[in-house]
Write a structure and sequence with these properties.
254 residues, binds iron/sulfur cluster, single chain
Length: 254
């Protein structure tokens, strides 16, 4: 996309989609007909960095005598193979496909959601369907093509009727997520939704209380924001989400 007018149009559409401040052109007549600036910014400057929040370092297993294939998985492919065969919790009983996650192994941003929904279960891919399309647009709004981001969930199998994963299901599945993070070693983690945020930060706080802080997981900055599925239900959350993802973008650029 090299035409400046196309870039400007895309930027304004992203602003509109994510609830950004309205852009009003005050010029009229001949001035209004003049061409747009040569290079409209695709990624506007981010807000100031918020204060530090929770820092969590989950302990490594202390069992030196039992081999743990998850902890010892040497690649994301090996990990996906373990997930495909996993029966550690009851969610294996109703799944069609496991949804381990996808993205480049050296991604700088890692997005974590809650768990697969119906379309994800059918396809084996995370964040597809309407919520996935919105995530793709959110990432584009901060100048990140989706295929440069690692995208995964807390649980890798669909909870029946899209219910929230239960505590024991999360506990059984979370070693996969932690190993994914160890392997990708992203610069920033974006936790989307309350389940992802509480899991990443080992916290029971509400999503609202965890927003607008720079948390840390094993030293990696974690930004908490709304899940795209929640944004589809409540468009009022688009503006705060826009603020959050710009903070993530700023941390990526630092
Ligand atoms: S949700 Fe996770 S722990 Fe449970 S069966 Fe699926 S992969 Fe295994």
């Amino acid at each position: 996309m090299t035409d400046p007018r196309t870039v400007a149009r895309a930027y304004l559409e992203q602003q509109r989609l994510l609830g950004g401040d309205p852009v009003v052109r005050e010029d009229t007549g001949a001035a209004a007909a003049s061409p747009p600036p040569a290079a409209a910014p695709v990624t506007p400057p981010g807000p100031p960095l918020p204060p530090p929040g929770t820092s969590w370092e989950p302990p490594a297993s202390s069992d030196l005598f039992t081999a743990d294939p998850v902890r010892e998985a040497t690649s994301l492919e090996v990990l996906a193979g373990l997930v495909a065969a996993c029966t550690r919790c009851r969610l294996c009983e109703s799944r069609t496909h496991t949804v381990p996650g996808e993205g480049p192994p050296d991604a700088r941003l890692l997005v974590v959601g809650e768990g697969p929904g119906r379309t994800e279960d059918e396809t084996g891919r995370p964040f597809v369907g309407q919520a996935g399309d919105l995530l793709t647009k959110i990432l584009a709004a901060i100048g990140l093509p989706r295929d440069r981001v690692y995208i995964c969930n807390v649980v890798k199998c669909r909870p029946p009727e899209n219910r929230v994963p239960q505590f024991d299901e999360i506990a059984a599945c979370v070693p996969y997520l932690f190993r994914q993070i160890d392997l990708v070693r992203p610069k920033v983690i974006l936790a989307m939704g309350g389940t992802a945020a509480q899991t990443m930060l080992h916290s029971k706080q509400s999503l609202g209380a965890m927003r607008n802080q720079v948390h840390r997981f094993r030293g990696i900055p974690v930004i908490v924001t709304y899940h795209p599925a929640a944004l589809l239900r409540n468009p009022n959350w688009k503006k705060p989400t826009w603020d959050d993802v710009r903070i993530a973008r700023r941390l990526l650029d630092d």
